[in-house]
Each structure stands twice: as C-alpha cells, then as structure tokens.
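Working notes for the structural subgroup meeting. M.R. asked for a predicted model of this chain before we commit to crystallization trials. I am recording the input and output together here so anyone reviewing the notebook later can reproduce the run.

Input as submitted:
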Amino acid sequence: MLEVAELQVAYGDAPALRGVTLRIGAGELVTVVGPNGAGKTTLVNTIARLLPVRGGRLVLDGEDATALDARQMCDRGVAVIPEGRRLFGTMTVEENLEIGCYRRDARPHRDQGIERVYALFPRLRERRRQQAGTLSGGEQQMAAIGRALMARPRLLLIDEPSLGLAPAIVDIVFDAIQRIHAEGVSILLIEQNAARALAVAGRGYVMEDGRIVAEGPAAQLRAEPHVREAYLGETGEK
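Returned structure, recorded in token form:
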C-alpha cells in the first residue's frame, strides 16, 4: 500500500531523516519505535505531505506520491492522528468530529461516521456538546482518533497516542487501535511505548537518529537484545 524509499528530510542544514525505507502493506498494522528525537514525528508529517522531501520517494498504491500535497494525500485515503491531539478547543466534540469529514467522499457518511466514533468511544457521546478544550487528555485523544476516522481512511498514521495518558486510558486507546485495524484499516503506529506497540503490531521498525536500525516481525524485534535493553527495560538476565 505505502512504500517509503530512501527518504531524506532536513530542517535547514540539519538532517532529520537519513535514507529511511519502510513499507506498510494493505491491512497491516506496522509500528515505528525509538527514542525522542529519532525522527518519528518527522516521518509521519512527511508521509502526510506536511514537510518537503529532500531525497527519496513515497509510493502509494503503486503510484509516486512524493509530489502530492496534504489535501491530495487525504483524498487518497491517508489520515493523521497527530502528536498532541491538536483539537479546536473552543469547538464542541461533535464539531471537531465533523471537521474530519470535509472530504467529498466522506461527507455523505457523516451520520454513520459519528455513530461509529461514539460506538468506539461511548464517553464522547456523553461529551458531544462539550468544548473540546475542557476534556481530559484521554478524552481529547479519543476525539482526535474519532476525527481522523470521520475521513474514512484506508491508511491511518497515529503519532504517539499514549503520550501523557494514564495506564487505564492507554488500555482504552490501544484497544480502539486494534478494533480499527480489525475493520481493515492499515495503520502506521508511531509510539515511544515499545512494549505496547510491539504487542499489537504485526511488524515493526526501530528508528534512531533519523535512520532505521532494525526491522522485522514484532515478536522478533521484542526478542532482540538491543530492543529489550533499550526499549523494553529488560537486561536478558534470568
């Protein structure tokens, strides 16, 4: 579905992505884990066409997507759940959700989309007339996920969904991610919590300093000594 080939991105003269190559097949849930500053958010924003490409290319459904803009990428079924949620705080929950279905193909399915989101997150139904800025962090994350789903995406880019959330809310969010994936949506999950991410993903990549340093099936990555020590807090000692 999506191929990222030798992707290079920079902020001025400072390289951020250094020849990143990865792929997400149709119906896959793939994760990218790594430390702060590794380039994970830059990767998401570049795939979403919010940042320019210095080198390499993006291929979506077999067609070069490197020159597309953000709107064109969205029209092709790619939606983003950004780090930090980025809701419109003075608008209600339902108004924030409705923004997600501005695409022509999504607009006719507005009511169906709203019900889908409320079925996934019943708490949002209770808060639907409440200003988004007054929600808890977990509720805001639910609304951000819901807004992206309103676009009826085929590929969902999720950036740090567990950031700043209590463990019980993280459970709810990751359960929702698995349910969305079970509906057939392809997912690229960017996550610092490597244990949670590798537990739900089929395949994974480890990014450090703008490069992919390891890749493979999630179970294989969980067993690698470097991943266990650096990201899972395990030393390998019995």
